[in-house]
Design goal:
With 434 residues, the chain is an all-alpha fold. It contains 15 helices and 2 strands. The protein starts with a helix and ends with a helix.
Length: 434
């Protein structure tokens, strides 16, 4: 409103005070008149949008409740939504107390226990390993070292310093030594892999394939080289690795958000801002690295037969690497934004109980119910606004009709009376119909 009104200053400054006052009144009256004209359309657009959101939240809440048992839903309905202070900490039904999925280390310990291989639990190395679990776990560790070396090479660029060159050489030597020990165990137990290993021995250590089950595209190829028995172990460890990567993504997102907030509130000056930007850039680089780790684990799972239709471990895009309401107040429009799916998945604490899945289900149930109730309330408020607007325009219609009657006795032209009648009667009646 004020931006168009400022344009009137070019000619109102040249007229007298009374004329200027009347001109500004006419400009603001015209603005208000157009706002009244568009009132019905604005309310209609808002109402249809709210109905769509309410339908989406109600369908989700109903479908999610149907996947739960009736006993659980009845139990959750009786729970209080007020926060409670327990043992010095505030708890709420809207906040989980444990994470969702087991970590890679916990899965490794459980698989070793199932194989009855206690030396692996006590930290056995691959040189003494006769366990398939330890063999696969060591292969994943080597792949992790390969990723770190690739990241370091990417960070240093084509012209590394002397110190960086020495570090890269040492890391590559350690990686080659780990490869030598691991290859000897691999070829001893799976000699059919010899042709595949021979093709990759000529490349750099960071680019060598390990020829684990995920490096083959079909079960027939895995059976042919004799590593099909490793598929179940590799899949369990890869799922845990993906969950660990999601946990790392969430942690670095928190650190990045807090560092950015701290810089905005407390840092000033060129020197301090430069150092703060270096910290934030380091968080961004770490975020990309752990996201790449998740994508690599997910790609391996897809090759091992993981279905994308289950909804577990979906594709991680750059748009998903975000955090909502981190150390800030809820601002206007945040309710329309959907939270990233990564905050509903991640590794379980090592001390977590077996009911962690039910714990997260009940938190999500309360959140979805609150979301549904909020959109129901928004629709009720919009309907009340409709009724108020209809009452206002009905009253204005009576006022204009009364003005028409009064004007009948005045000395005005028929044209003036028709204009007053059309503006006053037809328009406000038309809004009520809309």
């Amino acid at each position: 409103m004020w931006a168009p009104a400022k344009k009137s200053g070019a000619f109102t400054k040249e007229i007298n005070g009374g004329h200027r006052h009347e001109t500004l009144d006419a400009i603001h009256g015209d603005w208000n008149w157009h706002k009244v004209q568009n009132n019905a359309h604005s309310l209609y657009r808002a109402y249809t949008n709210m109905v769509a959101h309410r339908q989406r939240t109600e369908e989700f809440f109903k479908g999610f409740s149907e996947t739960m048992t009736a006993e659980l839903v009845d139990l959750w309905k009786d729970m209080s939504t007020e926060p409670e202070l327990r043992t010095g900490e505030w708890t709420s039904v809207y906040r989980p107390t444990i994470s969702k999925a087991p970590s890679q280390n916990k899965v490794f310990q459980e698989l070793c226990a199932k194989e009855d291989f206690p030396s692996a639990v006590n930290g056995a190395t691959v040189a003494a390993a006769s366990s398939n679990v330890v063999f696969v776990q060591e292969g994943l560790r080597i792949q992790g070292e390969q990723r770190k070396l690739k990241w370091k090479l990417a960070d240093t660029g084509t012209t590394p310093t002397e110190t960086e060159s020495v570090d890269i050489t040492q890391i590559r030597k350690r990686l080659e030594g780990a490869f030598t020990k691991w290859r000897s165990i691999q070829l001893k137990h799976y000699p059919a892999l010899q042709p595949h290993v021979a093709r990759t021995m000529k490349v750099a250590a960071e680019d060598q394939k390990l020829w684990l089950p995920s490096d083959f595209l079909s079960d027939a190829e895995r059976i042919q080289v004799g590593i099909h028995s490793l598929t179940s172990f590799k899949r369990a460890l890869r799922e845990a690795e993906a969950n660990d990567a999601l946990h790392s993504v969430k942690e670095v997102l928190k650190r990045e958000a807090l560092s950015t907030k701290f810089k905005q509130n407390h840092i000033c000056g060129q020197k301090d801002c430069t150092r703060a930007n270096d910290v934030i850039r380091a968080h961004v680089a770490t975020k990309r690295k752990v996201a790449a780790k998740y994508r690599e684990a997910r790609t391996a799972l897809l090759r091992l037969g993981h279905s994308e239709n289950t909804g577990e471990l979906p594709e991680l895009t750059d748009d998903d690497l975000r955090i909502k309401w981190m150390d800030t107040r809820v601002s206007l429009g945040d309710g329309m934004k959907a939270e990233s799916w990564i905050w509903m998945q991640g590794p379980q604490n090592e001390t977590g109980k077996s009911g962690w899945s039910t714990e997260l289900d009940h938190v999500k149930w309360f959140w979805s119910r609150a979301d549904r109730d909020r959109w129901r309330e928004e629709i009720e408020k919009c309907e009340i606004e409709f009724k108020c607007s209809i009452a206002f325009h009905a009253g204005m219609e009576k006022v204009w009709r009364e003005l028409v009657k009064r004007c009948n006795g005045d000395r005005r032209t028929d044209c003036d009376l028709r204009i007053v009648d059309r503006i006053g009667s037809d328009y406000f009646t038309g809004f009520i119909v809309q």
